[in-house]
């Protein structure tokens, strides 16, 4: 098969790394790709926002399968454009991608389908949003309705913090048009889990679950980022809970979106909170998580390509092979991230890091300049390790991180450690 992967971040590097291992693969191309993806596939400088350019590239490459990695082109309808041209596409069309593109849409769908989630209200008026916060009482969560690169959900411990969050979204337009509407939710307590399932438009299967670390500093402090690290498996998500999530959340979600006339073909990322009352939905994403994808792909057994192909074609879904190993991804970021950060900073040590047994380094925000790798984003690398258990994977991942060098580099030092401490006898 000829496969085109659309995207250029750490998630897409992980997908290319896994797809490149498939015996069914003839040719793999990435657009726009990154220096790490170039090890597995020719990279073509076509932006994910250039839908005409992506279609032309798919035609030129005679792609048997197009895998769309990021959420922005999915919400903007790239999968629809490609399907209209006759391509098999892994990724939902724009109508189904509204599950991530609009939090208000997603909450209404959950309400209609009886899917457990936090109590909420939606606002286009800042004063009414603040009044609702006072009726509800703190803590609350203020969410920009649209896409905000993983940074649009603001946990507010006090009403004063809620006022600031509403101002950031609706008055200062920190998130642009995405914050013109906000969803205000009750704060759910419990353990957060990223749950992934595949749908071919009719049937669905559970894939894997991971746990993400969103805030920039150790101890879950500081502002939210796109993700500072992740690990799999999640011990608290046992077989009974997985079955309940599929029965009460995933299957009704796919059925609900199909009733709107938009059958879902792709991966659904369900952000869960395991509360005392049971699992509840925090949010939906319509693509693999980043950095969860890096951990899931390295731990995954078997061939990824037949799974993605079956999803794209609406064919019967193979049963995913259960992972037997653990994986941990530690994200190395630029100084100042998630705020302003420099780019073009030379970096070293990737080859040294990958000499640590079990370690793979995924490029997230890098570029080549005069023959060397430099930083080109906030999240720069995802140092990922597999081992026979989470503690050993943590040790290997940090051994890899210790070999990475660039000015101002920052990373959390507690990825997965809290869970390991909770499970220790």
Short note summarizing the structure:
This protein has 425 residues and is an alpha+beta fold. It is 32% helix and 27% strand. β6 (140-144) and β7 form a beta hairpin.
What's the layout of helices and strands?
Blueprint: E1 2-7, H1 10-19, E2 27-32, H2 51-61, E3 65-68, H3 71-75, H4 78-84, E4 89-90, H5 94-101, H6 103-113, E5 120-123, H7 126-136, E6 140-144, E7 153-156, H8 159-171, E8 182-186, E9 191-200, E10 204-212, E11 215-217, E12 221-224, E13 229-232, H9 239-259, E14 265-275, E15 278-285, H10 292-299, H11 304-313, E16 326-333, H12 350-353, E17 359-363, E18 366-369, E19 372-375, E20 379-387, H13 390-401, H14 417-423
Parallel strand pairs: 1-2, 1-3, 3-4
Antiparallel strand pairs: 5-8, 6-7, 6-8, 9-10, 9-14, 10-13, 11-12, 13-16, 14-15, 16-20, 17-20, 18-19
Helix pairs in contact: 1-10, 5-6, 6-9, 7-8
